[in-house]
Amino acid sequence: MTKSTIDADTILKRATPVEHQESHEIQPFGHLVHMPIALSETTCKESVENLNQLLADTITLRDLYKKHHWQTAGPTFYQLHLLFDKHYEEQNTLVDSIAERIQLLGGVSLAMAPDVAEITLIPRPPKGREAAPTQISRLLHAHEIVLKEARTMARLAASAFRSFAGDRHGHAGRWAAWLMVPIGARALSVARTRLPRRFLASDGHFGDTDRSWRFRRPAPSGRPVGAPDLREPRVLNARSTRDVDAGSCD
């Protein structure tokens, strides 16, 4: 039996990256994917729209800090140069947090500068350098815009459902759902195609010799074995009562 060989041109052709690829969007902007987070589609849609507006203004404020970091001048140059860069990093952290919350609600977050410029409420600064007092005044005005809209959006969200900030377990659950939904779908398809039928049709393990594959069936009551009965009254300890009364946030 002869061993087939591949010439150098074929190898190079396979190793060359395929450029200029184009495809349709897998989720258009403004459309939501249903996520199992116990929130209605209307509530999620309104929250995504508000958060995208807040995201656009926060991105603009972040970039404004970097612009002033580069262009500041005068006797306070060193202090302002460091201060503006510090606040830029803080705003960058907020941008990432807001964008990820949009995604876990099933939406699509704004990302590119042209899209942000279309909807931001913060006035556009000139391209040239401004004096330090003007830079600070412009930043204060931008912060005021973000604070006003954030407070208004928080009141609207509170009237529809308990906010993320006041719901530790809700935030953790939505975050887990965002991460696990695509993984779970993939795992289910793999299980259906690769696991032996005797495993899927049995009690969830191959036999007494391999207990690591245990997958226990639900009890006759309809809930998994060992799961708490939510119909039973739950006694809150002192700490959990204080957390609920104080409206603690994550």
Topology, pairings included?
Layout (H helix, E strand, L loop, with lengths): L7 H8 L25 H31 L5 H28 L8 H7 L12 H29 L7 H27 L2 H5 L36 H9 L4
Helix pairs in contact: 2-3, 2-4, 2-5
Notable characteristics:
Ferritin; 8 helices; 250 residues; disordered C terminus; mainly alpha
Brief characterization of the structure:
By secondary structure, this protein is mainly α. It has helices at 8-15, 41-71, 77-104, 113-119, 132-160, 168-194, 197-201, 238-246.
Task: Write out the CATH superfamily name of the domain at 41-163.
Answer: Ferritin, core subunit, four-helix bundle
Low-confidence stretches: 163-170, 183-250
**Gross morphology:** flat
Q: Mean pLDDT across all residues, rounded? A: 74
- Helix count equals 8
Order of helices and strands: HHHHHHHH
- Helical fraction equals 55-70%
CATH level 1 class label of the domain at 41-163: Mainly Alpha
Approximate strand percentage: under 5%
Distance between the termini: 67 Å
Fill in the CATH topology of the domain at 41-163: Ferritin
Largest sheet: none
- CATH second-level architecture of the domain at 41-163: Up-down Bundle
Count of strand segments? 0
Structural class: mainly alpha
Compute the CA-based radius of gyration: 27 Å
